[in-house]
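[Target chain]
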Amino acid sequence: MPKKYNTPKRKIVVKTRMTDEEYADFTERVKLCGISQSEFIRQAIENAVIKPIITVSPVNEKLLSAVGQLIAQLGKIGGNLNQITRYLNEHGMPNNALSSEVRSAIAN
């Protein structure tokens, strides 16, 4: 008479490679638990706490570098605007030389 198990039908096979040391550790743990290798792996998956490792790829480092450079340029632009504003507040309307410089800077 064939054995009947009250488990779900499992049809997907997962394979892995191990070093001799890893396999010895694995089989020792399986023996200590008194369960099959398959059941050991299933329980390990259910109870495992995996901490993902997030790495920054070279593309992201380039992007971060570019963003840093843009922020630096925006800081310089902000400083220039503050200097222009201070000058206008202290001296009133700009003279023709400053006016032409501002217009050429805006055009670029």
